[in-house]
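ESCALATION

Customer reports they have been waiting on this structure for their group meeting. Please prioritize. Original submission:
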Amino acid sequence: MGSASSIQLSPRASNVVEESDLNAGSRKDVAQSTAAAAANRRNPKRIFERQETAYDMDLSDLLVGGDPIDEPTRAMLANALSGFFFLQSNSDEANAKMELLMKGMKKEEFAEGYLLITEGESGSKLYVVESGSLEVTINGTVIREMSRGNMLGELALLYDAPRSATVQCKTKCVLWSLSREIFKRVQAISATANQIQRARWLIVSPELATLSAIDLSRLVGTLQVVQFAAGDKIIGEGDLTSQIILIEKGHASISSSKVNVSATRNEIDRALGILRPREGKRRSVEFMNASELKKYLQNSNDIAPIEEKELVPERKKVDACEIYEGCMVGIGALRGRANLPDAWKWVKNGKNEGAESPLTMYASSPMTCLVFSVEVFENLFGPAEKAIKSQANVKKSGGDEQAEPEKKEMSFDSTKFKMKYILGSGSFGVVTLAEYRLDKNQPAVLYALKSLSKLAVIETGQLRHVLDERKILASMDSPFILKLFGTYQTPHQLVMVTEPLNCGDLWSVVYETPPYCDNCGIPFSLCQFYTTNLILGLSHIHEKGVIFRDLKPENIMLDERGYLRIIDFGFSKKVPYTKVDANGEVKVYAKTYTLCGTPEYLSPELIFNLGHNHASDIWALGVIIYEMLMAVTPFAPKRPDNVTELFTNIAMVKVSREYIWLLLMAE
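Update from on-call: job pushed to the front of the queue and completed.
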């Protein structure tokens, strides 16, 4: 179960700039209104859960008990829940998530006149009306009535949101409630089930089966979702390709001139490098009901390469060879790159490079495929030939990945610091500029001291976060990341000694520095320069196996040469990470589920508890690029305090993968 964490949020105010305003030539007027709104945006409070949230995969308590639901009520609840934007599903599928949510709902009865929700108070439940009538008011004004099938309080499923209206029962009412804890747990279980299944399908390949659990989870995290319509040609015989394709939904037909028409399916598979899922592992978790999902997750440790004895000889004509959910095509390209036998031929043709496909593949039905390339594999693990062999040796010897040695920190005498002035303040203390001089004959050295109140850290349960921040920051070594020199403590404070950065932050550049603050954004060339700085900084963070989780202009400082430095690692975390469960088994977690960050920079998967990794930092980077150019964040609601609209804007956006790079390259 997830921890019953306290979640806090203060929405960051913002100003919405309409495109028509910019086209009308009134950028100065817009800039003035933007600057006025920006004055209220300084140092916004952040979303955070007081503890890192972890979920077990046992569904027993969700499947047993609960209030009985008749079929009309079940249909009514499913219709209401599927209308919420992040619970939409295909009604033709047996959706385990929807079933689990309904099993977790409680039937509640309320008398006429009962005050169900009070405006401004926090809430933790969503309600669906089965019978009765409710009155909704804002500031004492009636705005609507609610009856059977209506849903209210959905934002409470995401975080500890203040209620936006008052709701009172006009008549006796029967409502079905869903708690935030149940919702977030079901979201996490559904997302984890997908990760487990993808990993199981991948390790059917002997080459990928040699990956460690952590490396396998990293590879799963890189899979790109690609859709195909029935009849689409996915790959042609003789084409150069470096892609490995895993079918998640749908069917495809395979044909080839390189195999005998009388060959069995297994002979065809060997000749063309087609891999099929283990017996009983074919069905996608998207089509499982709750009971089937429970059985599937109970066998989550069943990860082993396919055995020859599991293959069932089957005679099929080559032009009728079908592949389906869990089948993988293209692993021969990786084998070819690694110079392994029985591989697709790796060819270099001028600037083009790839494996020569021995088959043609057409979509027989609408398909969802998961794709990674040889280049992605080598970016993760190094040259394919060495990576596959070294991983195999590690697996064979039972060795583990070596932890990176910690850098030795400097030691400081706290009595030798001379405080000059305060640079800034945070949740638990202040940052002060100080001179350090061991003796009178040595020149003074300037440092920034981040002082944290021990009492505040302990009372808020943030000690683990503070220790992790110090450890992670100490491991960083990049000119685009704040440098930590050492730490010390006093009876009342924990102190981090860092380099001084007193040239302002990126927020000040965008919103307070003329002429940028008058022109609704910084010049494109400067945005390119700053973006390059951030990419280099984030790349270093991610190479260390860390996600930052709170990238925003206030956490990006300028040094004396005008380069950017990423600061404040309070929300950063190692991902993937391992944890010992109650049975003493070491589990690998490819994603983390703790809700934290600043609302306008949160990615959809972070908001909806689907599990997040380094990709959430890339999302935040995209938001910052837009903000630097436009002096407003891209998903800002029309009313600053409307967090529902903000989260809806984030959840419903559709951006092409090429957009950011076109933005950076175009002039």
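Sent to customer with the following note: Residues 505-665 form a domain with the Transferase(Phosphotransferase); domain 1 fold (CATH 1.10.510.10).
Escalation resolved.
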